[in-house]
Amino acid sequence: MAVTAVHLDSDAFMVCLAHALSTEREEVMGLLMGETCTYGCVFISVIQYMLYIFILNCYYRLAHELQRPIRVLGWYHSHPHITVWPSHVDVRTQAMYQMLDEGFIGLIFSVFNEEKNTKSNRVQLCCFQSINQSPEGEAPQYLKLEIPVHVVQTHTLGKACLQSLVELPHILSQEEEESYGKTLTIDNLDLLTKIHNSAVYTKSLCRIMDVMSGPLIQTLEAQLERNKTKIIQLQNEKESLLQKLNRKSRSPHSPSKVTSV
């Protein structure tokens, strides 16, 4: 049974897009967590990398916190500098996931595609599943089935999505550290190569700070200031309403209490 529609919360969409825009040299991939309903899937959180123990920890923690049947329902990956449509490898990968869960869906974020006329970058989103078009008994031949996706506005940044967003620079730094660590185990490297590898590692960390950590800190600080301003506005409104209630209660036209004997 194919999924009829996918509803993606805007804060989860933002985390996926931030991950997709973290690099234009290679594709990134992660999993989507959410719950099923009668009209499709509602995704409420994301995790950035496919580590089994980490997925289980996120799954149990999120399901416990929200008291809702949260589970892994999809995967997403990026297509930097290429079309948004899934390749034959993507379609086969999606088909394997659907063997485990027929409601599993795939999201593709096409990023770093420049419009020729406006010279501006265009971001595209595709949601799909795989269907087998081969007759029964023959080798499967999978085709993509595009699924309507609706980005649902959320007025606040959910705790789970905020945690994923904050962890993203750490995950990217950890990947660079692991890659650099592998070079340290290679024997008979000359000094110039070691210096080069160290410089590349340092450059990668600086890029993560410049592209991810810096803008993320600025965004969160701006959101904090907006929240503080909103709190002050609400406190002033509260005080104004309390003063109006007090004036009304002291007004001679206010109804007096009747005591029965």
Automatic annotation (TrEMBL):
Annotated Gene3D superfamilies: Cytidine Deaminase, domain 2
Keyword Transmembrane helix belongs to the record: yes
InterPro entries linked to this entry: BRCC36_C, JAMM/MPN+_dom, JAMM_MPN+_peptidase_M67A, MPN, MPN_BRCC36
Transmembrane segments: 37-60
Any GO BP: proteolysis
GO MF annotation, one: metallopeptidase activity
Keywords of this entry: Hydrolase, Membrane, Metal-binding, Metalloprotease, Protease, Transmembrane, Transmembrane helix, Ubl conjugation pathway, Zinc
Record-linked Pfam families: BRCC36_C, JAB
Start-end of Polar residues biased regions: 252-261
Statement: the UniProt record of this protein carries the keyword Ubl conjugation: no
Segments for region (Disordered): 242-261
Record-annotated MPN domain positions: 6-134
Listed CDD domains: MPN_BRCC36 (cd08068)
GO cellular component, one term: BRISC complex
PANTHER family recorded: EUKARYOTIC TRANSLATION INITIATION FACTOR 3 -RELATED
Family recorded in the similarity comment: Belongs to the peptidase M67A family. BRCC36 subfamily.
Protein name in the entry: Lys-63-specific deubiquitinase BRCC36
Organism in which the protein naturally occurs: Lingula anatina
Lineage start: Eukaryota, Metazoa, Spiralia, Lophotrochozoa, Brachiopoda
